[in-house]
Every structure is written in structure tokens, then in C-alpha cells.
Amino acid sequence: MSADILSRIVARKHEEVAEAEKLIPEKNLAEQAKARQDYRPFFKTLSKPGKSGVNIIAEIKRASPSKGIICPDLDPAEFARAYEKGGASCLSVLTDRDFFQGSINDLKAARKSVSLPVLRKDFMISPYQFYESAAMGADAVLLIVRILEPVQLKDFMQLAAELNLDTLTEVHSKAELETAVKAGAKLVGINNRNLGTFETNIQKAADLASLFTSDQVPVAESGIKTREDIISLQKAGIFNFLIGESIVRSPDPKAFLKSLAGRMKP
Length: 266
Ligand SMILES: O=P(O)(O)OC[C@@H](O)[C@@H](O)c1c[nH]c2ccccc12
Known about the structure:
By secondary structure, the protein is of the alpha/beta class. The chain has one domain (2-260): Aldolase class I (TIM Barrel). The protein has helices at residues 5-23, 26-35, 42-46, 76-85, 104-112, 127-136, 150-162, 174-182, 203-209, 227-234, 245-249, 253-260, and strands spanning 55-60, 63-64, 68-69, 90-94, 118-121, 140-144, 166-171, 187-191, 217-221, 240-243. The strands form two sheets. It has an eight-stranded parallel β-barrel, surrounded by six helices. The chain has a two-stranded antiparallel sheet with strand order 2-3. The longest helix is centred in the N-terminal third of the chain and has 19 residues, at 5-23. Bound molecules: indole-3-glycerol phosphate (IGP). The site of indole-3-glycerol phosphate (IGP) has 15 residues, from strand 10 and helix 11. Indole-3-glycerol phosphate (IGP) is lined by residues 59, 61, 121, 144, 170, 191, 221-224, 242-246.
């Protein structure tokens, strides 16, 4: 059943983009995108470890196809503030509606209430979405190697650069890592979750990080739940962690974030 979820998400995304283009033409968004002024440094923040020795990109995530409903009524502004107070280095906001119950408004509300750089977490398959991302105020976008042709990956990286959007390029295998590196990716996310099967194994990030050169900065993504998970991945040279579900489910996200970064007893 889950084997084709990713292709369903991508197929739906093409429809959504076509619908959005009818409401707001790309030309209009491009103007808004170019007028954007308050870019916040996502890549630069993640290029060296934060004060605690790690950077946490804390994610705002209401639901997911693998976990179902996580926290459907969450208030993105309130969560963003708790994440900032808990020492998060950046935010990630899911904007996919149909599979993750996110929205553009979630990103805008979260970003407005803090001063952290914000990653737009979505399935980027069309240039339209890059203009849209810059227009909504995102500082960075996710590029998932698995759903893009290598030339498309390169073109999208270039378009993102023109719009002053940083990119986090996501891989799940050695072959995808090679594709990412060839395309010039600098910030590379290793997704511990296989987006086709939902199988999650945090060892994945450690294994692939060993293949990185000093030109690429790794980000471990998905399935990270404890301080021990972080310590074990730090041993593999990783200092950036993208974490969603375990923070959203925590009764006290601010305190939980501090404990993940080793700044408070759990
Ligand atoms: O909630 P988790 O297991 O901590 O994972 C966060 C993040 O890595 C995950 O949401 C994610 C990583 N890559 C994606 C691509 C699309 C959608 C979601 C994702």
C-alpha cells in the first residue's frame, strides 16, 4: 500500500500546482518573490555547530502519511516561539496540505513570530513552487533527489539561488548522494526514512555521512527521538538534526529541545 504513496503525493502535487497557477499566475508571484527583502541565513546557520555543539531544525508537523495525525490543531506561531526559546537553530514547516495537513499560512504564521530561518518542507516538482516559496517568505526549500531528474535538480538549484532561497538536498542512498554532489549540493539531508516504504533507521545517516567530503554539510533527518540518538550521530560527524514528530508530541517542546541539545537533563 505505502509503496506508491510517494508517487501519489507527486501526482497530486502536479494537480495542485496547476490549480494554484490558475489563481495566481507565476508572473505575479515572481514579482512578489523579487520584492522579498528579509532573507534569513539558513545555510550559513547550519554550516557550523551551534553553541551546544549541534543545530536542531525543529519541524512544525500536524500529520504525515506514515504516522497519521500527530497534532492537527497545533498553533504554528506558538510552536515556533517554543522552538526558538528551546534553542532551535532553524524551523522547518510542512506546507503540503493533502498528506501532511500543512499550509502556506502555517509557514507565514510561524516565521512571523520568531527570528529563525525557515525551511519550506514540501515536494518541489515545478518552478512555480520556487516563486511561491520566496513570495511566502521561506528562506530555504527542500529538494528531494528521489523525485527529480538530475537535470531538474540542477535547474532547481539554480532557480533557488536566483531567488535567494537556500536549498536542503535530500538523499536516502549512496547513488542519490552522488547525484546530489554532482548537482553541486552543499547542504545535504540524509533521510533516515525511506519515503517509499516508511521504514526508518537512524543508522542510515551515520552510514551515508561517512561518504561526505568537506564540501558537503550533512543534516540527519527523521526518526530522531532521544539525546542518545543525537550523540550517536555526532560520532559520525553530523551536527545538524531535522526533527519533527518527537518534538511535536512532547508535552513541553521547549524543554524537550533543550534536553535533545544536552542543555538540560531530560
Ligand atoms: O518527524 P520526524 O520523524 O522527526 O521527521 C522529520 C522530517 O525529517 C520529515 O518530516 C521529512 C524528511 N523528509 C521529508 C520529505 C517530505 C516530508 C517529510 C519529510
